[in-house]
Specification:
Oligomer: single chain
Shape: rod-shaped
Radius of gyration: 14 Å
Number of helices: 2
Helix content: over 70%
């Protein structure tokens, strides 16, 4: 695993926690921030996965 994969997955987890906390507390702003952070984490993890795949292909 490379650092983009790790950081992305951590951001996904933090975003998911914020999203669930926002839903439970009915705080739409927190829920939205969680969704955005979760999506950003998925993108970063995907970028890390791509880098890893390219490294293996070469």
């Amino acid at each position: 695993m490379n650092k983009d994969q790790v950081k992305g997955r951590i951001e996904e987890a933090k975003g998911k926690v914020k999203e669930v906390a926002g839903k439970l507390s009915k705080d739409r702003d927190l829920e939205l921030k969680g969704r955005v952070q979760n999506s950003a984490g998925k993108i970063q993890a995907g970028y890390g996965d791509l880098k890893e795949d390219l490294k293996k292909a070469i």
